[in-house]
Amino acid sequence: MRSHAEAILNLADEARAAVAAITAQNAGSVTIGALETIASVKLPKWLSAFQSHHPGIDLKLKVAGSGGLLQKLEANEIEVAFCFDQQGVGERFAKRTIAAEPLVLIAPPGRGLASTKLDLSAIASARFVVTEVGCVYRQLFDKAFAEASIAAPRLAAEVDSIGTIGRLVAEGAGLGLVPRFAVVEAIDRGEISEMSWPNATQAALLVMIWRRRRVQPPALKLLLAAASDAFGPARSADAHPRRARPFPS
């Protein structure tokens, strides 16, 4: 009788421990950093869904440029950064690609170039609105012309946001190279035209970067896993469920 009672008590202790572990996983806070374009377009719907499933986890979002995000990770001001792929993040950080975002050339509405098969030499004489040096789109832009041994186009303006590029292009300032997701609504409204980017690199890789630790905070682990599932490749209806992927500590 006594051993039976002890077994029941042990089961009760295990149940309480399991509940405590689940509660700990679904509590805490995560400070996220992201590029402005990603923060305003890609993250809101997903973060809202994540918080509805994990109401005990407080989320904070900080916006910065690519260099600023790495600095904030270094200073422990953020726990994970969502940005486009960049080399040399260092061994202290882990990085995972979660999406490939198509790149497009955008032009003012009604421009004849939109229906023309383009190559880099055909657009080299155009003026471009570009992001600042150091931004991934600017790197792709400069690299494409350099590798093709074509003089880079003249710049109409150098700006600090994709939204500004879209507005300037719509007003006729020049062409722009941007991730399609950032301008899809303007394209649908007819405010700008889109063209294929005539280069082998057709997409920018969206990554998340976080600091390696021996033990990651439970709330951060949940968010990293949720991001991989949310932004990963779409699956067919009859595909087998994916197993959760381990995250580097």
TrEMBL record:
Residues covered by the LysR substrate-binding domain: 25-230
Keywords: DNA-binding, Transcription, Transcription regulation
Tagged with keyword Cell wall biogenesis/degradation: no
The keyword DNA-binding appears for this protein: yes
UniProt cross-references to Pfam families, sorted A to Z: LysR_substrate
N-terminal signal peptide: none
Coiled coil: none
GO terms, molecular function: transcription cis-regulatory region binding
Classification via InterPro entries: LysR_subst-bd (IPR005119)
Entry similarity comment: Belongs to the LysR transcriptional regulatory family.
Protein name per Swiss-Prot or TrEMBL: DNA-binding transcriptional LysR family regulator
